[in-house]
């Protein structure tokens, strides 16, 4: 059994991703070409033979983009910082640390309203992302005012909406594309260039997984997908009050950086079938079979992971003898020793399981995870344990790259 503990870090928000001056004309060239093509066909410009109006409008739009994008990405990063370190006793200090993080975005958001309808595809996406980010901070301020952690969680529910609106702009706005990569790969110019020319039928697909629907799945097929190469498959399960369409964004930037296929399904009931009739395990098996029949996956790298109830169900479903998953990685999960005691010995023997838990977890105390590690190892599993000192009951996205390295380096 491998065990690792990470020490606490100062409660300090991430630095500004990029300033207006950091977005150069070169970085905006893809969008500039798009804007030129759209504006040159606009009715307001057809009779301007000199092209002066077109040039002025393009310059103004590019200036707006150079102002809005850094402010938007900064706001999203700061809100993500809150999501990572959210802990009831720390709520006032945490929100104080990001106080005013949305001010730059508030200042530049009105500039989008002046964009012509010829650019509505981009304008509307930027506006939707900006508005969702601003609603996040409005909700966080209400949470601080009322000292209500539930309001903070509700406010953070706006972040997936912002990311979903923004993501399609990746090919034409490279700073946005870099935002949707794990931080260590954001300066990889070769990777960003390859992602800007996506393979056919790649990107995000939602299959009967609209907000409010049950039993659907959101998929990410990497833009670098090559049918001649086997790709790892990550199946990421949301928490008890979550939804697959939202939880997808907890993993997307890492799957995108590593060329992994990502599936984020939604439970068929109010949460995963931890007790009672289990309709979710057969559904997951059918989902994996369907993905494998359509795309080239690595049959030795099929990871089942999840947060909270999703992590608990990673145990419940993943320990079944016929499970299609080669690796399990529960995060902030509940565990009962009987899960290991009643599991099939052949399934348990050598099964790679990576357990992640926060020392500050207020829902499932860390002693539960420590007990799980001991029980799983005693039953024959190959267990890796990561305990994070400054983690409460939230999802730590920084572990994703570690999980992918673990997935690549361990044999089932």
Q: How many separate structural domains?
A: 2
Separation of the first and last Cα atoms:
15 Å
Helix tally equals: 17
Characterize the largest beta sheet: strand count, sense, and whether it forms a barrel: 9 strands, mixed
Roughly how much helix do the residues carry, as a percent range? Answer: 40-55%
CATH level-two architecture of the largest domain: 3-Layer(aba) Sandwich
Shape estimate: globular
What is the fourth-level CATH superfamily of the largest domain?
Answer: Alpha/Beta hydrolase fold, catalytic domain
Strand percent estimate? 5-15%
Output the strand order for the largest sheet. 1-9-8-7-6-4-5-3-2
Task: Summarize this entry quickly.
This protein has 412 residues and is an alpha/beta fold.
Question: How are the secondary structure elements laid out?
Answer:
Layout: E1 2-6, H1 29-39, H2 52-85, H3 91-97, H4 103-108, H5 120-146, H6 149-156, H7 159-166, H8 174-179, H9 189-195, E2 203-207, E3 217-221, E4 231-237, H10 244-247, H11 252-258, E5 261-265, H12 280-294, E6 297-307, H13 309-318, E7 327-331, H14 337-341, H15 345-348, E8 352-358, H16 366-378, E9 382-388, H17 400-409
Parallel strand pairs: 1-9, 4-5, 4-6, 6-7, 7-8, 8-9
Antiparallel strand pairs: 2-3, 3-5
